[in-house]
Model the fold of this input.
Amino acid sequence: MPNYMLLLHDSGTLPPDMSPAEIQAIIQRYIDWRRRVQQGGRTVEGHKLVDGPGRLMRREGSGAAVTDGPYAEAREVIGGLFIVEAGSYEEVVALCQDCPHLDFGTIEIREVQPTT
Amino acid sequence: VSEITALVDNLFRHQSARIVSTLTRAIGGRHLALAEEVVQDALVTALQQWPYRGVPDEPAAWLYRVARNRALDRLRHEQIVGDSAPAVLDAYAMRPGVRQPTALLAGETPPVDDDQLGMMFLTCHPALPGESRVALTLKIVGGFSVSEIARALLAQPSAVAQRLVRAKRLLRERDVPFGPPGAADIVERLGSVLEAIYLMFNEGYAATAGDALVREDISAEAIRLSGLVTRHPRTGVPRAWALLALLLLHAARFRARVSSEGELFLLRDQDRSKWDRPLIAEGLRALDRAASGDEISTYHLEAEIAACHAIAPSWNETDWPRILDCYGRLADLTGSPIVALNRAIALARVEGPLEAIAAVESIVPHPSLATYHLLPAVLAEFWREVGDPDRAAGYYRAALALAGSTPERRFLAARLETLRG
Done:
């Protein structure tokens, strides 16, 4: 069964003054979502990306130019990613319908090409 | 696949308050704002990481560690401390409350939390106005946000924020030391803590307006804090127990006061089967503990009145002479016109409505009562009992002109309507 990579873009829409209870409630929604997906028999693996720009390299002459990037100037940043095992794009989309992240940003879904 | 850990209710609220208290104790009351900021940072860091990485094995310890490291960075950066700071902080980090987050996860009652109690002596300092004490205690010890406090207190968030800033500045300028004061000051300082808890409960309990859910949380927090005060040997004095008894006995009636449509029920009309019996039993136990000394505080008298109502099978079978006696002593202690008004209600049950009307008329000139809608509302009820619907109607109209909240206005209008039947 193929894996799908879910890139979670944050749009930075969280309110500035959140109470501890409100913060906990948001985390709980993500936990509940992962639990639901796993109970449906699909594994979810999560990775947090370190905040801040990464590095972008490109060939320049005989060496390589390295810049911060690729999204240093973009408002949207990728907060992290999930890898979900699923049968089809349609199934992944269905699994993400109630993903809480849709309230805080966008989800980009890419199918990983199997190695065999 | 590893099992995904769930978070226990209120983990963040209670842990953030606890960590702010522990850090403040370690670095001093003057750095309270810094402690708050680093704890908020730690919560936001959790929000950024836990959805991906899952909940750590010991979430409370994780939050503490992140907040503590952030505090060290800030303190070093601002050159407040030198390299010895980690040792100072960690001496506190090794305290039982911080090292046993699993106990909290299992839903066990946490041990007596000296740090939170110490923090209350800071946030309820007598130099602060009562309103500021309530707001600051809700924010720092209760873990409520500015907007939640504003919703509960019916204030603008900016006004609450400003009140908090001013209060913290005052504490910084005075350099108030952290923790319960010495024997010489404890009576005054404890009085100030109890008063703030009492106000906090009333903010939550008052059936005026505002966000009902937050208000109920705030009353529950006041009960938690007064429990904290009673459990400590130095502060668990009779009047602290009396306050706890009072809050529990009132909270037991919380659900019976308002219908599902938001309509208010007077004590007389409440469905007593909806009263929370276990809470009443706990309140009566607390009142028992309060009786262990010679001291009779206003909390004792108010709790005794609440207990009379709580154990009465009905409005008519209530021990009115005892309530009248309590109100009389309470009026002597406080000189409050509101207490005098309540005394008149008890007097009406014991001696009749005409005597009660005479008693109310003797307190009318007090300026704080001039705009108090319950004064004409009570007179209207007395005149109805006497059998003078015209005078009763006049007072209902006067009360309607002064009443603030919609449920109260609906209630008065309905009472006025029944006179015509």
